[in-house]
Amino acid sequence: MTVSTERIGTSSGSLPSWVILVIALVIIIADRITKVWAVANLTYGVPKRIAGEYLRFTLNWNQGAAMGSTLGSFSRVGFSLAAVVVLVMLAAFYRKGMQVALGLIGGGAVGNLFDRLTSARGVIDFIDVGVGSTRFWTFNIADSAVTCGAVLLAFTLTRHPTPTRAPVTASKK
After folding, report:
1. Which terminal residue of the chain has fewer beta carbons within 10 Å of its beta carbon, N or C?
2. Which residue has the higher pLDDT, 160 or 31?
3. What is each CA distance from 37 to 66, 112, 115, 138, in whole angstroms?
């Protein structure tokens, strides 16, 4: 019986697995610091211009998930459980070559999960981009990390699909 043991990203250019933890910790710390700063220095709902109308900081609490999606009164528990399930699934499907993407996604998920578990008001959002009255959803560092990580993961998976096993052949003796 012949089975391929080739792994994606095991070349000498591959990053070690601990990179996931380092990237996640950097995202969690940056997310926490910026959210604490936003709560201490911004007034809820009042935009502070950073780069004209293009970039503003506007403090907001989001009880839903991405782009304001909600599960009603179940949002806090539901999205917290979803974050944990996603983290477990990502760990289960991990393979080399995905370290940066998983670090970004994991760090962002934990950053927002912390908010959901420690505040009934929801996740702290404050980064506000757009032009004039045309605005994107308000977001935070954790949201950015999850989005960038998801795009990077999709790119990685399309460039390096899951390895397939060689056909099993019975040998005659």
Report:
1. C
2. 31
3. 22, 16, 14, 16
